[in-house]
Design a protein that fits this description.
heterodimer, A: 187 residues, alpha/beta, 5-stranded mixed beta sheet, two-stranded parallel ribbon, 20% helix, disordered C terminus, B: alpha+beta, 3-stranded antiparallel beta sheet, 17 helices, 13% strand
Amino acid sequence: MSAETSLIRTLIAERFGEAIEELGFSHGVHAFAAPPDMVVELCRFLKDDPALRFDFLSDICGVDHYPEMPRYEAVYHLSSLPNKWRVRIKCRLGDPPRVPSVTRVWRTANWHERETWDMYGIRFEGHPDLRRIYMWEGFEGFPQRKDFPLRGYKDKLNPFGAEGSPPTQPDLATKDIPQGGRSTPGT
Amino acid sequence: MTEVTELSRLESDAPRTKEVLLNLGPQHPSTHGVLRLVLELDGEYVKRVDPHIGYLHRGTEKLAESFTYTQIFPLTDRLDYLCPPSNNLAFALAVEKLLGIEAPIRAQYIRVMMAELARISGHLLITGALPMDLGAMTALLYAMREREMIMDLLEMISGARMHTSFCRVGGVREDLPDEFFPKIREFCDIFPNRIRDYERLLDGNRVFLKRTQGIGVISAEDGIDLGLSGPNLRASGVDWDIRRDEPYEIYDRLDFDVITSQEGDCYARWRCRVEEMRESVRIIEQCLDQMPDGPFQIDMPTIAFPVDKDRVHCSMEALIQHFDLSAYGFKVPKGEVYSAIEAPKGELGFYIVSDGSPKPFRMKVRSPSFVNLQGLFGVTNAHYLADMIAVLGSLDPVMAEVDK
């Protein structure tokens, strides 16, 4: 266990120096913290390095650390099928949260990033089709943020919701989202 | 120059064709739930597919943030409702890792056995439903007959047929009843013969073979790139099974084969599941043989409910323990964990961030069906609309798990 930890640590340190912070090994996963602008490069390195071969992207998810600052976090879970190792990359994001997309590294990132955008409003730059995936087009707010009420906001369809309305975010207005999807019947 | 004019004249004379947008679902028997596919068709030829999901979104992850850890078990049941024991197990393992505890050995055997029963139940449905999508109705009816036996077994254990919620952090809810053992032995005797029946029904069915063999091929590289897992990835030739490669519970004590196939087509995916059911029966038999006596719950009053329920009514300590766990739950140390198991559909992972309170700060479900559904984009040779149905069926998405 320690041999693989030191190998992963050394290879990352050789390539990136101090930029990638090592967060230790716990419950079978090696954790690293990366600044947003280095995520794609780090993922590509972990995937392509012949000794590491983290070829499988298990998951991407968002975390809202409200009221801590910086508030948001994008978390990537990578697996190496040949070596049977797992790595977690954590990336703290300010408000409004933006991070480059890793869809060019793994195609599976597409839906994970769409889900994270839908639930947390984390904008994945360079994503080919960043639409909402669970909620409908035109839904306002990002439901899994900590300041979004559990029952939603009160409107004519939701009489039990909380008073108020989701905070507007001019930077993340819907017109700003690349509309990759074409119009569909019935909409 | 003349050639060009000639060509353009010919083109303008040809009948004008137009791509058609076709809406499939959300209410459609072949979409296995409420899935809506927007297809761009050129005749019968599918040019582009755009799945619209979210019709079953219940906000499991958001809800979990306001529930105690024990209360979350019923929520996990409702992810992949064909095999709730696997989901329970995945969640329990994640929390146990955070707490730094392990369930007693007997409880681990019970959980593994139930997870394998669930695997058979999940695979049975798709073994029958894929042929039904392609017009062979019979197999599903037989598969449902066997699924009924599993439902009865689960009912005998937990009292519930579908949403068992039988796992607890640090063990299981109750011990197995005595009448369960002869019943499951009987099932293990009967079931391999029944699998042969399905094979006889379908392996010689030329229509079924024509509709699945060589259709919807996904290469190993594409499969990994698209994040497929479970039988869908193994059917493409990737020999990866979390039960064997990152053994959890008592899987390292069991002897079973990981089924792979090289073809990567719809038939291979169907075939893998049929073979996996045989392996599951082997695992269940080994569990029954090896299962030791002992406690079914960890001996930690701060985490586990009182074993003897009658004591709650006559002992102050047991009453307080029960009340405390029901009303406030137990605290989980600060930290984060990603724990994955081999669920019937693939890698089911729970990422839990704990802030030290009795409720998770963040719970993320890495649901295999959600990712497997993206496999539709990796299919290279499903040209026709009817093949799309076969591919969708063979990827085996459960919409409750896709939508969370």
